Amino acid sequence: MQTQATTHTYLRPTVPTPKGTRLRGLVRRSRDLAFHGFVVAVAWLAFGPLSTSTARTLRHGAAEMSGAPPGLPGPPPGAASGLPTLSGSGPPAIAGALPGPATIPSRLLGPSLLSGLVHLDGQQLTLAIACRAGGRVSLYVAALRPGALARGTYACRRERGYARLGLRRADARRLGGLGRTLAIATVSEAGRAATLSVSLQARGPGPGDWSDGGLVCDVLGEYEPYLVAPDFTSTPATVIAVRPWIAWYSASTGWRWLGTIGAGASSWYRWTATPSGVSQWRTPAGATNPWTWAPIHVPAGRHIFTIAAFEIVYGYAHPQYDWRYALSSSATDGLATYCTYP
After folding, report:
1. pLDDT 10s digits, 148-199
2. Which domains are assigned to the chain?
3. What is the DSSP code string of 177-238?
């Protein structure tokens, strides 16, 4: 029996953008990339050819010198775990109620990631960690094998630690063949522990963006973003479960996650994706009234960056899981990777 092909399409939201702001955003991003390249070039002239992991560490430092996060946050907490079943038994998905107001926490303790997208370099990989003390790391990849894939330690200097983990040759070869893969890093330091989601890959692009919805940075207020869910489509129509997240970064905290029910926790929302979008969001007049989360308050004066992500489960005969980031947009800078709050 031949099954019907499945497609998912997404459209960007309409956000007021003054003339020329998109170009300014691209120029600013190009200037940052040029600065990062300059740092690596100077190091090459001074020390000779650099390993891939060393070059990435230098780029992390260059990014932080320019004020930007050194990398994207990686997958949301517990990515691909605790998934709701859309029929039968299992954790139910919420029908679709809107969440209440939220605030980015002013302070959280414990280690966190500076970048949750980690590239394999031969048989080695490096986790960049925002820290307060030296610590230990264990890395688990359920798609590869049970048990810890690698273990290591890191020293903490100026609130930064780099855990360089070595893999067995067979594990590195299999990991390279898997492509982009979810992993869990358990990090402990000075009596505090954290379980952090990581995306591993040997090469190729990262997870990409949903091209609809996203984080609107400043329409409600200078420090009040709001989140709009993508208008998911599917052919054939199917029930979906969606879990929204906002990641935030500051130099002192690294990347942290906020969900609809608090720090590190978010709810699943159940809708129906059709060829023309989410059916529950269509009004009798034919307009679209998407799911939103607002207001979200960001503390001023902490130089915070935010980015949104959505997980999704498509309820086909064989359910499919995916997660991606959502683009940010502001009235002054147009579409961008992050919302920035000085």
Report:
1. 999 999 999 999 999 999 999 999 999 999 889 999 999 999 999 999 999 9
2. 73-109+206-341 (no CATH), 112-201 (2.60.40.10)
3. HH-SEEEEEEEEETTEEEEEEEEEESSS--S-EEEEEEEE-SSS-TT--EEE----B-BS-E
